[in-house]
Amino acid sequence: MLKILLFSFILCCSLIAKDHTVLLENENSFFFYKEGREYKGLYPKIFQDISNRRNINLIVKELDTNLILDMEKGKDILIMDLIETVERRKKYYFIPTFFYLKANMYFLNAEYIDVTNFYKKRVGVIKGTYIDKEFSEKYEFLNSEIIDIETREKGIQMLKSGAIDGFVADNQYGFIDTLSKIELNRIPTMVTTLAVPKSEKKLYEDLKKYFENISPNSLKDMISESRREFYKDKFKNKYESLKNREINVVFPGEKSNYPLYYSEDGEEKGITAEYLSDVADILGLKLNRIVYAESKDWEDNHITAAATIETSVEKGDNYTNPYYTLTPVVFNRKEDGFITNLIEARKERFAVVDNSYYMDYLRKNLKEENFVYVKDMDEAIEKIRKNEADYSIADYKTLINKLYNSGYDQELKIAGILDKKYNLAMVIRKDEEELFEALKEISASFLNENMTKNIYWLKNNYEVTDYKRLVAVSLGLFLISLILMYRAKKGLLEKKKYQELMMSLVSSLEAVNQFNDFETGNHIKRLNMYSELLANKLGCSKKFCEEIGSVASLHDVGKIGIDRSVLKKPGKLTEEEFEVIKAHPEIGYEIIKKSGVSVMAENIARYHHEKWNGKGYPKGLKGEDIPLEARIVSIVDVYDALRQKRVYKEGFSHEKSIEIIKKESGESFDPELVRLFLENELKFERLFNSNN
């Protein structure tokens, strides 16, 4: 009886969940803020959801200096959005969460187009952040005058006063003011993290599973709910005069423009529709959708949805921060030619939707007689198919989806990639100052493209059921991009233009791979960063480092030609299946060779599975007969493959992966490269954790 009572007591104790403190920094944003005595925002909602689903008691507290000191002393405290360091990694596990942290240079001067514009300029940096050190090291060549700024908001004030020419910050939070920006690509992309004490391994594993498995729809709902709650608390009666007003919103004429706006089962969906739904709820507005019919619609109504900032600036309108970025491509019939710039098409007919995002750009390069006006993209496709127009323009993501769903991927192709992207914003009529101020504040919280778990684009399958065919469509567009790269290299002297097209090519490859395998997209991004880092440590030339940092991601392009059932097979491959896999380097080599991208890209695709001892494939090259770029990619590719969790295996720890690579020195890998890799192993671990 005593044993039974003792067992019951132990069981009851085990069922009482331990309280765990989670520290959050009060940014006074919809992520986390304090209303009276209550903590509110997205992060408290997430931790409450974890408590409900996993029986873990997570108590949220506001971070302060004393609590950070407690954490550094090793007390069992969790902390959100903590940047990893070598010392902290000894005491804490780090779980990647939801947001990419990309370093940007923010500025007001519209004439600045490149980071070199900041040579010997005054640049504001928030001291003590991870970006502070990275910017000083990676952009030392700018010889900038570094000026301390206390906060991002202080940086904006100093920009407006002329005290600085630009400031460096990450993109986790938006700005009320619309700023120009340039991505600082030399600074590694980070991911927001949750730090968990190493004394709490079971807790770490439970939380890691939660963040890995949370559905995009659940996350989207929590973000929307948090945004609405935050701005209602913040505004209180500030915009009382807007309540119950009827506001007319002009939408472009396209009926379906996934993922921006489209109808599904009679319901309006997409980023634009959800943006406006949140605005209506926050401000108590009734929004009437007006579909664009003629030019006066833009002037007669209150808000223009999905308008470009470029257009708005020229007209002097009031526009919010951007909420989506378009990548425009030119498309035509498959049997027709290609173009590398619009000047080549001055005698051709363009099917265009009047007042669409690209019209101002087209009018700068073409004449009115070039235009065949249509009401939407569907009609533009019909005009091309029937040879009533020669070209049209669409957003890259939208075009993939449209060609797949219409079944026209066998008839149409990408014929050119434009040399710029377009930021979409809401434009508010000039006499609606109060409405503009409200939307300007709310738009700072729309960070759709900063999400690691992309809540709007992850499914890639509006109306899609046949994934094999979707991959085929994407592959066709990717191969066209390869051809365009070849033409651009032959016909254009401008280095910047070539580099932009190279990035479009890599983006196309990522899109193809992500349709087939979501994790591959992250893998190829990491490969570029790993390869450039190792080349730098070897002391390679700047040109070599930059090129390998751009084309290493093409190493496995040949896998597109391998049957998915073999690629994704759980368990050990048969000899015949392994022979099928071994064909991918030659397939990739042939694709890249025909495109004319570069000899380095060809070598990486063909030789990255060769081994230092000569026992690799496909050619059995040995030692320094293997091109250096392939030897570099070989090591980092294996490291990343070991770390990744796949359908057929669990991911290895960093330590286990390093041990395997060390054992293969002089066997699979160049010993000198292994030595450099091991000397810098923590940098590679950081890149994996930050981009996983």
Write a structural description.
The protein has 692 residues and is α/β, with parallel strands linked by helices. Helix content is 45%, strand content 18%. The strands form six sheets. Strands 13, 16, 17, 18, 19 and 25 form a six-stranded mixed beta sheet that branches. Strands 4-1-5-12-6 form a five-stranded mixed beta sheet, sandwiched between helices. A five-stranded mixed beta sheet has the order 9-8-10-7-11, with helices on both faces. The chain is globular, with a radius of gyration of 27 Å. The two termini are 52 Å apart. Residues 1-16, 457-468, 485-504 and 506-519 have low confidence and may be disordered.
Give the topology, please:
Elements: H1 2-15, E1 19-24, E2 33-35, E3 38-40, H2 42-54, E4 57-62, H3 65-72, E5 77-80, H4 86-91, E6 92-101, E7 103-107, E8 122-125, H5 130-138, E9 145-148, H6 152-161, E10 166-170, E11 180-183, E12 190-197, H7 201-213, H8 216-235, E13 246-251, E14 262-264, E15 267-269, H9 271-283, E16 286-291, H10 296-300, E17 303-308, H11 309-315, E18 318-319, E19 324-326, E20 328-333, E21 350-353, H12 359-365, E22 371-374, H13 377-385, E23 391-395, H14 396-406, E24 412-417, E25 422-428, H15 433-443, H16 467-491, H17 495-516, H18 518-538, H19 542-551, H20 564-567, H21 575-581, H22 584-595, H23 599-607, H24 628-643, H25 654-663, H26 671-679, H27 681-690
Parallel strand pairs: 1-4, 1-5, 8-9, 8-10, 13-16, 13-17, 21-22, 21-23
Antiparallel strand pairs: 2-3, 5-12, 6-12, 7-10, 7-11, 14-15, 17-25, 18-25, 19-25, 20-23, 20-24
Helix pairs in contact: 8-9, 14-16, 16-17, 16-22, 17-18, 18-19, 18-24, 22-23, 23-24, 24-25
